[in-house]
Amino acid sequence: MSDVMKRWEAHRPGIDALRVEEVVRPEPAPGEVLVRVTAVSLNFRDLAMLEGSLGKWSGVQSPGSEMAGEVVAVGTGVTRFAIGDKVISVDIRHWIDGPAPEADTNTAPFLGRLAEYSTVPEDLLVRAPASLDAAAASTLSVAGLTAWFALVELAKVRAGETVVVQGTGGVALFAVQFAAAHGASVIVVSGSKRKLERVKALGATHGIDRSEIEDWDSHVLKLTGGRGADHVLEMGGGDITRSLNAIRVGGRISIIGLLNGSELRASITTIMFKRAQLVGLGVGHRRALQDMIAAIDHLKLQPVIDAVYSFDQVPEAFAHVKRGAFGKVVVRIER
Question: What is the dihedral of CA 55, 58, 62, 65, to 10 degrees?
């Protein structure tokens, strides 16, 4: 194993600032493992951080937070993994289980995964699913777990319920698959008729083209016989009036994204009348990730990957995320 490795870095905000650098390959400290990275899944938040719109720019940034790989060395005291284990990353430190993370958990994503090797505390890894290759496995710890945590862990989605999913990105398509697997009726709201046709193959019951039907909330009410949806996955943020209108009395809105703004706007009167449950969340704990992996292996569920790029195509991969993807964008690291 060489003492040097390649890693993507940016010294200023912007996709065009990305460069491949040769750096010293790290060694695992006590309690850490060295992972040979095989695939990295890109998230919208990775793009936002790279462009300087999410958090303070640090001067030098090595992007990438969601990865799959193989353990190639272990530090002293490591007991959970051995050399040769296939693993994926965990996104939140010190949150193994429980209703909410403690105050000392990390509040910013881990970075630096767009590299040939990465040292990781053993608590921040789980075994990869046996049924998926590295590219597919790399999509699970952020996008997959966010959808699973919202629908299965917290909302406990059941057969016969109606779930509204906004968009066709990574979290949204995982949500469609998980809700359908639990027997729920799934309504997808998107601005692309072509994507709505594709999403039905994943288990969506109905598609609403918001470019043609602006008041999609009224259409949800029609599709549910006036009752409203049990659950809306709110990907946009900003004004959530339509999501509130679309849910039933006692319904739930999981606030996941902020594409339409970081300030939430809603009528308190409507919230009170609907007895709405508004739940903000970001990813989930390690136990839920392991539950999800077990379910994926059992169901043989395949994550939706829009494109796979090579390690030297990282700027192109980020550009794909920026223009919008149907599912996930992955960088495969081959040697």
Answer: -30
Strand 328-332 to 66-74 pairing: unpaired
In tens, the pLDDT along 200-255 reads 999 999 999 999 999 999 999 999 999 999 999 999 888 999 999 999 999 999 99
3-state helix, strand, coil in the chain (%, to 5): 30, 30, 40
CA distance 138 to 132: 9
What dihedral do alpha carbons 144, 147, 153, 157 form, nearest 10°? -130
- Global pTM? 0.94
Nearest in space to 115 (alpha carbons), one of 2, 3, 6:
6
pLDDT above 90 for 114: yes
What secondary structure letter does DSSP report for 265? B
- Residue 314 near residue 8 (C-beta atoms within 8 A): yes
Spell out the residues 6+ positions from residue 315 whose beta carbon is closer than 8 angstroms to its own. Answer: 15, 16, 18
Q: Is the pLDDT of residue 100 over 90?
A: no
DSSP run (H or E) holding 8 = strand 4-10
Mean pLDDT, all residues of the chain:
94
Answer yes or no: are the C-beta atoms of 284 and 146 closer than 8 Å: yes
What is the identity of the amino acid at 274? K
